[in-house]
Design a protein that fits this description.
It is a single chain. The chain is an alpha/beta fold. It is built from 27 helices and 27 strands. An eight-stranded parallel β-sheet has the order 16-15-14-5-2-1-18-17. α20 packs antiparallel against α21 and α24 crosses α25. It is globular and about 90 Å long. The model has no long low-confidence stretch (mean pLDDT 97).
Amino acid sequence: MRTPVSTYRLQIRPSFTLQDAAGLTGYLRSLGVDWIYVSPILTAEEGSDHGYDVTDPSSVDPTRGGPEGLAALAKAAREQGLGILADIVPNHMGVASPGQNAWWWQLLKEGRASKYAEAFDVDWDFGGGKIRIPILGSDDDLDHLEIVDGELHYYDHRLPLAEGTFTAGDSPQEVHARQHYELVGWRRADAELNYRRFFAVNTLAGVRVEIPWVFDEAHEEVVRWFHEGLVDGLRIDHPDGLADPEGYLARLREATGGAYLLVEKILEPGEALPDTFDCEGTTGYDALADVDRLFVDPNAEEYLDSLDARLRDADEPADYAAMIHGTKRRIADGILRSEILRLARLVPEAARLSPDMVADAIAEVISCFPIYRTYLPYGREILLESINRAAENREDLKAVLEDLTPYLLDTEGELARRFQQTSGMVMAKGVEDTAFFRYTRLGTLTEVGADPTEFALSTQDFHERMVRRQSDLPLSMTTLSTHDTKRSEDARARISVISEAVPEWELFLGTVQELALIPDGPLAALVWQSIVGAWPADRGRLQSYALKAAREAGNSTNWTDPDLDFERHLAAAVDAVFDVPEVTAALENFVAELEPYGTSNSLSAKLVQLTMPGVPDVYQGTEFRDGSLTDPDNRRPVDFKARIAALAELDKDFRPAYTEEAAKLLVVSRALRLRRDRPELFGGYRAVDARGEAAGHVIAFDRGADAPGAVTVGTRLPKRLAGDGGWRDTTIELTTSVRDELTGTTYSAGPVSLSTLLEQYPVALLVPTD
């Protein structure tokens, strides 16, 4: 098996095709990258920028470069010695435009008689044998149906007609009544949909890849890539949605000839990837959480909790456990109630349980789940604990839960299988997409895959986790920014400094709230932190982010029934950043206070991520500092010409100041090149201890196995360090003479002063010279 040393993620889309990616291979090679990592490239919904709404799994998207584009990228990559990691989407397909998806079109046309009735996950008995399509403005909108060229049209929606269901003189409504589908009002999707979706996205229909022929047909093109040597490994999107992730991975491994595989699996703190999963690891959200917490000041937790309580007009700060139970229950009873009711329908009538009570009990168990899902029998004890916790919460459901337990534990039963597919949906929507916009004491902590109640991480705890990572998952990905992160690595690096500047943060927040009130205290904290992290930014970006954050939080407004008055207040507050001089000045002064320390955090976190155990990924463009917020902001075009020119300058032995844009490029390029060119320096992991008054401000480790290897040195909590007088007498012990890859300076074996070692940059990358 070929495995990557590092990867570089590119967002392939109509405006940046596979051919464009091929043109970057020389730059990526020079940067030090080992593999190119591409977003989904199979044919997707027309106009899709992300590609996760695949409509034709049998072809490379023509608008993304087509098969000739993939061939060109593969050829260019091979010439540069690069591998290719491709992102694939096995759980669902895009069905927004049935005419673009031959599988879905045939299903709608032929119903249960269609070959693809087995491919999609439809509960035919619920809905009278018809698929419910929630596209109408309301159920009364059937008057807007038309028959056009042998198709049923509803505004821009085109749908097929079953054979023999239309004759001259029939009304569109009569024809509609004869179809294998029923068009319904969009609000009915929450409780009455009868096909499995990706989360609550009606236009992404679940696919049953556990069925052999469905797997084969859905993966024929992907398998071709390996037979023809075009691709070297795969990233599997959302495996938790699959009926049998373990079986899927085993079959995919075989189909690809034993290729490198990663899963987009979110591991909660303390949770391990099941050892039955035939893959190399995860896509790195767990690593991101560990790195971020190294740069958060633990001393700030009490103060930020106190501020959070005041913003909520409460005596106590938010109770996160109670919050996520409530947000998950809100999702289970709301936008994902269709899925809960489907589970309830699977309980045999012989159980003699009230369907409403069963649905209530299932929703409660899922709301008590501490992780995304189990893989029975793996995780059986977690399921039992959640059932017990649900019974403690709801005494009235105790008897129902006792009767339900055998069905939920039955590994051969459909209810247990579907329950496992559903729990992750509720977790994702209730936690990532709701609670993370409500629990706002420090924005750094609310990233995908993180537990925001873990406020900070000591160097000792970090080292212990890295030893385990090196032992258990040395080929798992590490990352700091992705297309899914809610704030980029550099935005979070600056926000983390707030933990070292709580009085200044409280003063700034009070000032801007007085001048430009956001009438929701917790949301105000989130929005102003995000603006601080992203600044400078244009008005449109900040307005889009603030509106999305408010609607995701769902406290003062939401997506389905927005509070327009609140949203006007929110928009006015964001406008004030640009239109009210006092707000602009307050923001720029506060950002200036944080900036040098945020830059230090950025460089230190990046060097740690690039050199720690695992396969480091660089998200497109983040070799420069990048203040992106949540999608689609983090998928903006990248100015590669500027990065190519800056790298050429660095290679002329230019050494920028650490506050300059090119400093991050220096760190990224030197770390990636070293990992690729000197792999023998990265075979182990050992903490390097610091001594002296500022020892707590150092993160240092040696990656050598049996001999000294590359040594990473970074700065933690730089604002407090500066306030306390700098490094003073702090040293680390070098076991051999070394050269710093960033400055070219050499140091002899023995103690070296941190004030000397980190004089030019807040980081050092040391390589043995013996």
